[in-house]
Please model this.
Amino acid sequence: MPTYISLLNFTDQGIKTIKESTDRLAKAKELAKAAGGEIKAFYLAMGQYDAVIISEAPSDQAFAAALLTIGSAGAVRTQTLRVFPENEYKDIIGSLP
Model:
């Protein structure tokens, strides 16, 4: 299953309602599960980003739909990386000419 790292920043709305963020995270986990995926890890972060989420989803399309649904709530903005775990990395490198 594809793996993703999402870098999150709270919007003004998101920080004003920060006490609701644990409920929003629970809803995001439910959304991921309903889409056939899973939020594997959540981290509150210090620095350029406010949080980091590591997720899996059955496809890029399913994950994009989930992110758009989460983003449309207005509490966070995301930047997402499609990443490849070590075994997939080795397969990719092994397939090079």
Q: What stands out?
A: Helices lie at 12-16, 21-34, 60-72, 86-94. DSSP finds four helices and four strands in the chain. The chain has a mean pLDDT of 96. Strands lie at 3-10, 38-44, 51-56, 76-83.
